[in-house]
Each structure stands twice: as structure tokens, then as C-alpha cells.
Amino acid sequence: MRRVSSVPDDRLRPVEHYENFPVASWLCPPRLRRPVAAIYWFARTADDLADEGEAPAERRLADLQAYRNDLQACYAGGPLSDRWPAVFPALRRAIVDFGLPRELLARLLDAFEQDVRKTAAGAGYADRAELLAYCSRSADPVGRLLLHLYGVGEPAALAQSDAICSALQLINFWQDLSVDLPRGRYYLPGEDCRALGIDPAAPQEWPTHPRGPALVERLCAWARELMLSGAPLVHRVPGRAGWELRLVVQGGLRVLRHIERTGFRSLGQRPRLGPLDGPPILWQAARM
Q1: In whole angstroms, what is the distance from residue 149 CA to residue 173 CA?
Q2: 4-60: per-residue pLDDT in tens?
Q3: pLDDT digits (tens, 9 = 90+) for 260-272
Q4: InterPro entries given for it (predicted)?
């Protein structure tokens, strides 16, 4: 689905976003829709500060620091700036009402700052471990925040949530390769590139490299294995939220099927979910 992010900052234009999965959908328990939406817009707006527009890296980092200052003010009870009125008042209310862990929100900002620095340096990721460490900041905190709202905190459930969220992040990377590469965002692990004879220091060659599809296939298999390892979490999350999680898991696996149908050529084209994907996603979710 596609959403428009109206980022309330005159230095950042509204940005149109394609989203694979619904946010605060009708399956989400009504009392949790506001905090879920607050978490989403906090993360979405920070991601836009890190990634959208033409601002230099120094400006992006300064804006993210200002954004972090408002996050700190939410917890300290201090005054908020007037730069993001659509984000922080709602987030502060969610923090007060639901006790959202500060560390998890701060880790998201750490990831966005890392994105800015990596892109500015034209740097990639050496191996899968380094990429997963990034996912532990960019994706896993969102799942843990949602589990916090649902009252689920067992270590096994948290580990499964991390697996699902990291898998979703990886799937997004492999889906968006043709979009990220021109923007200087490099997520293909160097160790996997070298294993197939692809130079990790020559991203301009990746889209036309004859082993590119084999590399994407290898990485999609990794993401699928990670997703399936976390999938049992759907039986731990209660009620409607558990059904929404089923749809998220199956939506991610469906994206992988689309990548496969292109011959794993997402270095040159971006596969998308469409209306016809709804019935098979629902069927597979029900089978879980």
C-alpha cells in the first residue's frame, strides 16, 4: 500500500511512501491504534530526515539530533520544539499511557544516524553479522515495542520477534535494491558478494553482473529462513494482533515469492505486492 508522509518540517517536503504492510490496521486492537500509529510516525519521520530530500549529511545529523532532543523531552517532561507537532505530542501520550521503553525508540535513531554516515561515506556492510547488527537497531525495536503494547515479554517471544523484524528488513532490502543502489545505500553483505565473485567495492557493477541474480537468491533464502524461525510467535501474540502478525509474516514471504518470479532480478526492477496478492496471503495466514 502507499502512504503519504506529511513531515511537519519546512525543510522536508511531503514524501510518498510505498508500504508492503498496513499500519494500525483494523485488526489492531482499537485501544492500541493510537500508540501503534505514534510509534510508526516517530520512526517514519526520522527515516525521512535521514533519507529524503537533498540535505547534506551534516544537516541530516543535526536534524536527527534535534529530533532526539524532542524524544528526550518526552521522557523528561520538558517542552517540545514546534518542528514536529504531528509526532511528539502523540508519542508523549503513548509513553505516559503505555510506558514505552526509551531505549527502543533511541535505538531507531541510532540506526537512522548510521544510515546517514554510511551513505555519506559510500560504505556497505562487511558481512551478515554487521547487517544483522544494523537490523537490531533499525527493525527489531519496532517489534519489541509492539510486544510491549500487547503485554508479551518472554525471552523466547522477543527472540522470535527480532527474527521476524530482521527478516522483514532484509526482505525490504532485497526488494528495494534497484531503488537503494542509485541513492548510494549498499546493503549487500561483502562476504556474500565475494563468495560469488562479485566485487563488494564496485556497486556500479552489481545490476549487470551475471552472478547478481544468484546473489539475490542466496540472500532471499537467508531472509526466508530467518522469517520462518520467528513465525511461531504468531501463536504467542493474543487475539486480533496475532492474526495481523500472521498477515505480516505471510506478506513478507509473498514478497520473496515475487522476487523469485522475476528470476531474482531485483537489482534491476522492484517487485511489488498488489491486490491479487491479498487472497493467497489470507489463505496462508489462515493455514498458520
Answers
A1: 27
A2: 333 333 333 334 444 444 444 667 888 999 999 999 999 999 999 999 889 999 999
A3: 999 999 999 999 9
A4: HSQ_synthase_HpnC (IPR017827), Isoprenoid_synthase_dom_sf (IPR008949), Squ/phyt_synthse (IPR002060), Trans_IPPS_bact-type (IPR044843), Trans_IPPS_HH (IPR033904)
Distances (CA, A) of 65 to 50, 56, 105, 109, 139: 11, 14, 13, 9, 20
Q: Which domains does the chain have, with CATH numbers?
A: 1-121 (1.10.600.10), 124-288 (1.10.600.10)
Model pTM score = 0.90
To which residue does cell 510491549 refer?
A: 148
Residue type at 125 in one-letter notation: Y
Q: Can you tell me the distance from the alpha carbon of 278 to that of 81, in angstroms, rounded to the nearest whole number?
A: 41
Which position has the grid cell 510516525? 41
